[in-house]
Known about the structure:
Layout: E1 4-9, H1 16-28, E2 32-37, E3 41-49, E4 55-63, E5 66-67, E6 73-78, H2 87-102, E7 105-106, H3 109-114, H4 120-129, E8 137-138, H5 143-148, H6 150-157, E9 161-165, E10 174-177, H7 180-189, E11 198-202, E12 208-215, E13 218-226, E14 241-245, H8 249-261, E15 266-273, E16 279-285, H9 291-297, H10 301-310
Helix pairs in contact: 1-10
Amino acid sequence: MEKKILVFTLSESQSGYEVGRVVEEGKRVEAGIKRVLYSDLSFEITNNQFNNDQRKIETRVFVGGKEITKENILGIWFRVAGTTSGKYVIARNLLIQILKEKGIFCANGEGYSKWPRMGKITQYGVFSENEIVVVPTRIFYKKTNVKNGLWEMEKDFKWPIIVKDSMGYQGKSVMKLDNKKDLNSFLDQVDEKELGLYMWQKYLKTNWDLRIVVIKGKAVGAMKRSAVGDEFRSNFSLGGSVEKWNLSGKEKELAEKVAKVCGLDYCGVDLMKDKKGNNYVLEVNRACQFKGFEKATGINMGKLVVEMFLKN
């Protein structure tokens, strides 16, 4: 029986490029790759009674009614599981817990188990605990605290000031506030109940950053992402230009440290530099896309993802 690598997604279209490339490279080495949906999961937890009233708990997991076992599954690769309710985040972590006992490799299993949802605020707590340098940041929970602390932000950060949703993705929730008018306008629009999800950060006056991909503890390459035109965000998905970047020893070491302390087998680490060339970690992405990365570097990411499972 051929063992398969399962790729969990929220829909048939999610991560279309990444899943397609992994399937393509799997065929080259005769490794079975199958996309499955989180919604196809089901679990069974039972008590089996033995002599002297002793009981044993048995846990089983199914996809589309078929049980996942060590005999038919080589490993699991997770794409983003986030929903408003968080039901699939819970399902993903229960799956990891069950399959760990069965000896089945789940990529990023350690990191997902420790931090089911690892937004940027959580990340910054982990980074600071491990002495990883981040962009100077403030977090507020009341609008009055923002206004009372503004003079300190102006002194320490200067204008403009960056504000971003800690749970945002692909740069879509990152805003640049050029002055007090912009800041007050933002405060007027945001619900105070949601304010604590936002991070206020110093604006680093460079229009580019680095995306470094780390697999099984090793930085495999990097791309430079540059903002285009009036856009200050450099994300490839927002039209940023990409090119290959030759990693320095310090950049490589920093990215690998981030992956290690976050318990990740596969991730993208984003770094930014100030005018003096100092490195700051912006964030780590546990399910990073790689279309732009392959384009910029020529690195076969689909192949490396498949090898991550075959060599585990």
